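[Meeting: bench + compute handoff]

Bench side (C.D.) handed over the final construct sequence. Compute side (W.E.) agreed to return the predicted structure before the next meeting so the bench team could plan truncations. Sequence as handed over:
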Amino acid sequence: MISSVITKLIAAQLDGKPLFNKVEEAIDLSSSMKGRLKPSPVAFIIEISRRPGNNSRDMGTALQEVTTTIGVVVGISKTNDPQGMKAKTAVAPILAATRKALFGFNPTSEHSSLLLAAADTVGVTEHALWQLERFTTTHFEEATQ
């Protein structure tokens, strides 16, 4: 599923140009967010959580709906911007285009369309502003025994 989201964001554009200079999955997000940001903007895709619901069957093999939350961590470089206001203004259209690209997107045939979830600022460093856009999707898993 993550690879489908990455492919979708690689293809996304803003004003006729690629939306991001780099899009990849991040397992160690804190390491990805360290140091100078080149090239900018970048997006790191992470699976935040998977939450199975209750068994929907009274008899037979178990069937559960699983809600998965993924995050798109958007990083934009900031220079001579101690409070991050220029970066905040610059990242706004990137975040809007990210939501437009993914909201309603079906990452796989087994998953429901991506829905919008919470968004947050997750980091501000001397060199970058980091914003997190969350999306949720569901799929069903059936026990084999």
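W.E. noted at the follow-up: The chain has three helices and seven strands. C.D. will use this when planning the next construct.
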